Every structure is written in C-alpha cells, then in structure tokens.
Amino acid sequence: MTAISETKFSFPGQTGYYRGKVRDVYSFDNLNGESRLVMIASDRISAFDVVLPRPIPYKGQVLNQTAEHFLRATADIVPNWLLAVPDPNVSIGLKCQPYAVEMVVRGYLAGHAWRQYRAGYRVLCGVTLPEGLKENDRLPQPIITPTTKAHEGHDEDISREEILARGIVPEAEYVQLETYALALFARGTEMAASRGLILVDTKYEFGNRDGQIYLIDEVHTPDSSRYFYADVYAENLEKDQPQKQLSKEFVREWLIANGFQGKDGQTVPEMSDEWIGQISSRYIELYETVTGKTFVPAEGGDPLNRIDAAIRKALG
Question: If residue 214 lies in a helix (H) or strand (E), which one and from where to where?
Fold first, then answer.
C-alpha cells in the first residue's frame, strides 16, 4: 500500500499553494473566469495539532469521499464550496475567504471537553456546563465551543463574546454561522442515527465569497468528528466503560498512553507497521459504517501520477 505523504505539483494557471496539516491546496485565481481551489487529501495524519511522522494508507481517500458524501447531503442547509471530485483524493471547489474560527459543536461530554471538565473547569468557551456530569454524558442540548483557526501551532478555545469583542467575525455573520452549525449538527445526528451511530461532536469551517457564507473543507469525517455506536452506548455509560467509537480519538489515546500530547519537549512515539495498518483499517471501517457504502481502494499505479492526470483533465 502506497501512502501519499505530500504533493508538489505545478499546474498551468496555478497562483498559490498551501500545505495544511493533512491537505495540499492549490489556488487558481482565474479558472474560466472564477477563483477555484484544488484540494488534495494526503494520507498525513495529525493529532494534538502535530503531523505524525508516518502517513496512513487510504486515509486521504476516506476523508475526501466521506466529506463529499456529507457535503452533498447537506447542500440544502447551507451552500458549500464543492464543485467536483475528479479523483478519490481530490476535490475542486470555489475559493472562499475563510473565517478565522472553527465552529465546534458538542452534543456529549467527551474528548477535550471532558478533559477540561475533569480538570475542574465548568465554563468552556463561555458556555457554562452543569455540575454532576460524567464522561460521555449527553449534554442538555448541543453547544458551540469555537476555536481559533491556527495555520501553525495549536488552535485555541475562544468564546462567542471574545470573537465579537475582537471583531474576528461581524455579529450578524457569526449569528448565521451558529445557525448553520446547529442545523448541520442536527442533520449529521439524523444521518448517524440511521447508521446506528451517535454523532458526539464535530467541527465546521465556513468561508465567505461575494458576501455569501459557504461551508468549506471537510464535514463529518473521522478527522473532524467523533461517533459512538448507539447499541452499546447506554450500557457502557452505566458501567463507566469506554465507549465503542469511530473517530481518530483512538490515535490520541495511544499517543497519550505513550507520553505524547504535543507539548514542548515531547517526542512522537514510534509507529510500527502493524499500528499503521490498524489505523488504516479503522478509517476504512468508519467510511463504510458512516456512509453505508463499500470502500473501493483507488487504483492506477503510482497515486501521484494518477492524481496529477486527474487534476489536469479536470482543469482542461
């Protein structure tokens, strides 16, 4: 299995390139008279805002095709950036000006929220949490806990009040982002339930193009979302047992158990071939479980040659 660590293409008319934690993004400011982005989902994997040293086979394909599935299923709620998917690892869409915050929606007390709660904090991003909760409890209603969007380093929790006070997002637009985020979470919850899953938490990114808000980047993927299996949720909660889940939280837990949380001076533990294979299998499991579709590995020899050819054909 050949994994895609990075891409370094040069396309006709290309005006920019940006390497994210996972995606390589190519900009085109005048493609048939419009600004477009070509977004390639690599097989890089990040945790605690650090890109881990080894890529995961098929992870990029899983992310790209999962995102496509949910972008098309939520287009009636909010316009999104996606125009075409010419390759299993590639999406082409509208270039938008991203908002500098990510809208994190939480329906349950898990992950980062639980770690903060366990440490004694009862206010998360300006939202007051009730006393007496335990890990993985369902919250009284979904809450929005925004984070800043960092190009480098760690995203940071931020409150609604601070976003507005600092003028990071105009109030009217922020109110619309909240409305969209909660509506998307409701749709994601319904879709997850139809697959025997619980959508625990997720993040949404939005951009603006000509005064119109668009949903951008990935949606309801294993990198941006956490799912529990519904059939064992109540029993595990009652017995204080870990939830059976679909997300990359298992990668974070492995890193924590091996002494790494992205802090200064810490070293990423060695990732064996066996562990890489397990991560790959978990990502494929998530795709098939969440979408109900059979995962078909991309074919065509060298993946970089395949991707390059697909993009050039799509760009004309």
Answer: strand 212-216
Three-class secondary structure of residue 221 per DSSP: coil
Query: Global pTM?
Result: 0.90
Q: How many CB atoms lie within 10 A of CB 316?
A: 8
Tokens of 48: 């605690």
Of 38, 48, 40, nearest to 16 by C-alpha is: 38
Place of tokens 């006070």: 165
- For 169-191, the pLDDT digits (tens) are 999 999 999 999 999 999 999 99
3-state secondary structure of 249: helix
The token duo for 80 is: 């999104």
Enter the DSSP assignment of 269: P
User: Do 135 and 114 meet the contact criterion of CB atoms below 8 Å apart?
Assistant: yes
Start-to-end C-alpha separation, the chain: 30
Query: Can you spell out the DSSP letters for 123-178?
Result: EETTEEPPTT--TTPEEEEEEE--EE--SSS---B--HHHHHHTTSS-HHHHHHHH
Lookup: tokens for 171: 């109030």
